[in-house]
Fold each of these.
Amino acid sequence: MKDLNEFSRISLAVLPTPVQRLENISRLLGTNVWIKRDDMTGVGLGGNKVRKLEFLLAEARDQGAQVVFTTGGAQSNHAMLTAACAKKLGMTPILILKKRGVTACRGNLLLEKLMGTDVRFLDTDDYQDIYDEMDRVGQAMGLPYYKIPCGGSNPVGALGYVACAREIAEGGVPFQHIVCAEGSGGTHAGLALGAKLFLPRTQVTGMMVDTDPFEVITLDIMRRTAALLQADVSLGPGDIHLRDMCGPGYAIPSPEGMAAVRLMAENEGLFLDPVYTGKAFAGLLAMAREGAFRPTDNVLFLFSGGAGGIFAADLADGI
Ligand SMILES: Cc1ncc(COP(=O)(O)O)c(C=O)c1O
């Protein structure tokens, strides 16, 4: 197997991110709940995408790219962080976003405006239309460009979360469970593959916040990432643990998600977001209710960022 250090990587994140025990929530749930502070990765408002971008933007740089395209929903945290990291590295980000959700200049769109980012919208439900548009725009500009898929969820991006699993293993706490949000699959796939390699006794559960076929998507990214690493592991559906926490739809707050946001804020002074981490933490609470965790277990929740989303939608009604 290749070592992670053999891959091109640009240091963008402040690592390792802290792992903290949530004292009050542990007491409430009767188990040991810990939080991995990937909301503190140190670029923009923090978040999981910075880990992926360390590998993706290194590949872009190695290919001589001057322009970096990416996409996502109108309030994509990934798109905002791609813009922030690309700007830091002197590359020009161009975001071609789906014209869905909150398109007013709020939340992540406001942050993109502050960074002077070129943001465009395409009225489509098919990402292929957007990737084609990236090629049209890139070729018309005549500059070398690099395309990052939605969520940075390809094998190169997923390496960031294989590395995160290694970081968790090096921290020394024996976790029985890791729980993360799942929006495009790369974070879960990287963590699950990393767990297979470095944390063989840990189950990783992806809390789905969208309606895509994540059983297939996650396993596919895991397998292709394992191939990139030349890792000798056999992977199958049994390696994927998922739970549907989407509720009324992607980027639409759910009552369970908002209750989880409130619980975390009231007990720990931490602010989850309504689109990803609130719904994911609601999934962890549901697992606790169902008796999935023993009193002696250590359960790690990945706080993957998303603060921009708190300021995008009008959440006052949901609270
Ligand atoms: C805050 C936050 N958490 C979790 C995720 C999910 O990660 P992934 O897209 O790798 O499934 C995202 C993705 O957009 C995100 O922005």
Amino acid sequence: MQPFRHHVILCTQQKPENVQCCSAGGSLATESALNASLERHGLSDDVLISTTGCLGTCENGPTMIVYPEGTWYGKVTADEVDEIVVSHLKDGHPVERLARKDEAEVRAESLDHRRKRRGKLAAQDKLGIVPEGAGITETIRSFMASRALLTALELDLFTAVGVGGTAEEMATRLHTGPRATEMLLHALAAMKLLEKHGDEFRNTPNAARFLAASSPDNARPALLHQADLWKSWSTLTDAVRADARVRNDVSHRDAESVRAFIAAMDRNARERAAQVVAAAGADFRRMLDLGGGSAAYSIAFAKAQPELTSHILDQADVVPLTREYIESAGLSARITARVGDMLRDDFGSGYDLVMLSAIAHMFSRAQNKALLGRIAQALAPGGKLILQDFILDPEKTSPLFAALFALNMLVNTEAGGTYSEEEYTEWMKEAGFRTVQRVRLPGPANLMIGEKR
Ligand SMILES: C[S@@+](CC[C@H](N)C(=O)[O-])C[C@H]1O[C@@H](n2cnc3c(N)ncnc32)[C@H](O)[C@@H]1O
């Protein structure tokens, strides 16, 4: 079977720093150039590209193999890709200049690499050294890059870099120390978020687009929420010992971190809203959006269903922001937001849709059971509850993100956690929902949809 005219295998294996490999040789740039070239020449649908792990020809990487011919190309830089696309993939003539000719040599190289690797692993094992790829050292060290980027965001460094400048100029713009600023700039350049030309630093295209204030796609306000979470996560050891949150300042959030948090919620919700509306699948008129945040779901339902009005209930420091989002969507006449506590305040009745998105994880089992009971009472017969959250498998050991998010709730809330489909189903049935169905959407969050008797 040959569903594609060509199948291209490209090694993008990443190895520890200073180890020769295809990605260190630029195979990610080769991959981008290959995609762009195929697009330019109208071949995207004729060629399947698969990126792969180590092929054992690291010293001659980036390695690219073209099937069905089985042509092995070595040292394929981004500049050379176009020639391969035109001559080989379009016109059917392999590029002799770049193709490896000696089959026995390629085979010996690959087998030799495998032997050395196995030997190295065996030696490490004998010495009792934590092996590469076990994920232990890598996981522990990964906080360094995370912290460097969070600090850059807190300083608004990418905005300061703007059109570029030296480390000294940047320190002046940021009111920071010149020695430390230079170190941070170098680390960010190593992380491919900045480029260094001579003494000058410039934003990479991604940093300029997503991390600088001059860009309409600036994600900094939303990403700053993670800098706030860093502070809570650093209390995790104490929280595990105490069996509860130990950070006391979480409930007294400053205005900037509330704005950052709601902006983070909004980016996420906007991306998912269309799929949630499609999964809800009915003609709704009266919606209650509990803890509606940026109103993203109310706005999406209101846009999809012209008769719908929505009531949002949220906390006092969020509601002014909720209203800003509603106003900029031009929906103030159909979506209202009021201050309230969903654990205590009356919801009213007769709703045909209740949205409970990214809420249940903030609360304990008992709080969720009581809340679901009150939601069921607020719904008209046949009305629907859409609960969106990170749902654990029955064993609670996966998915990874949902399991880690439970810890996020441990350090940030009084009694929150993440729960399984079985738990939600039991609570919703007890609350008076006739049918309860899990809907899987792409991404870490899923829906539990309940319909009232
Ligand atoms: C994680 S955000 C989710 C926002 C929104 N539903 C979404 O999915 O984008 C949680 C929201 O619930 C609000 N909230 C937390 N506790 C609340 C309570 N007891 N009563 C009302 N709102 C609350 C927060 O202010 C925040 O806006």
